[in-house]
Design a protein that fits this description.
alpha/beta; TIM Barrel; binds zinc ion; about 35% helix; binds D-xylitol-5-phosphate; about 230 residues; eight-stranded parallel sheet
Amino acid sequence: MLPAIEIAPSILAADFARLGEEIAAVERGGARILHVDVMDGHFVPNISIGVPVVSSLRKATTLVLDVHLMIEDAARYVGAFADAGADMISVHQETTPHLDRVLASIREREIEAGVVLNPATPVATLSEVLPVVDFVLVMSVNPGFGGQKFIPGSLDKLRQLKELRSRYNWTYRIEVDGGMDLQNVSDAVRAGAEIIVAGTSVFRTPDAAEAVRRLRQVASEALAQKV
Ligand code: DX5
Ligand code: ZN
C-alpha cells in the first residue's frame, strides 16, 4: 500500500487571536497533523511560540502536534515539550551535537523523533542517525520565517532520503517544510515527501479548509502517478 500523504498546516501563518477557529478549519479540511514552529531568536532570527502554547493546543485539539524546534540547546527543552503534549518533536542537525542522545530521549518518551536539515546541510551528515529516526524534515527555505520561496535544490535531498530508505530498509517518513504550495507540491511528493508542511498557502487564503483539501488532492494525485 502506498503511504498516505499528510498535509501539516503550520500555525505560524495563522491568526493567533483566532487560533481555535483556524485549527477547526484545517481539521475540517482533513488535516491530521498540526505543525508548530518554535523559534528562539538565536538559532533563527525570529521568536515565535513556546511550551505554554503547545499545552493549550493539546487541550484544544486531537490533531497530532508536530513540534519543530528551531532553538539552540534543544536537548534542554525536549522534556518540557513532551510534557506539554507534543506527538512529534524534531531537532535540527545544526543545533544538536549529541543528536543520537537527544533522538533517543525523545523516543523513550514514546514521541516520534525527527531530525531537520537546513538547506545548506547535506543528507550525508545524517548517515549515523537515519536508522533511528521516525522522520526526517527537509527545510525547503532557510528557517525563521513563513512566506518564503521554495528552494528547488531541496527536491534532490528528498530523492536521496527516499533512495537511502529503500536501499537500507529504513522506516523514517519524509517531511518537507517551507514555501510549499499547489505549484510545487507534486514535484515534492514525486521526489519523496510524505508530510507536507504548509503555512502561507493554507492560512493566508480565504478558506483554510479548502486549501488543505486541494493540497492533499494534488499531492495524492502526484503520488498515484509516480509508480
Ligand atoms: C520556517 C518554518 C515553516 C514555516 C512554513 O522556519 O519552519 O514551518 O512556517 O511557512 P510557509 O509555508 O509560509 O513557507
Ligand atoms: Zn517548520
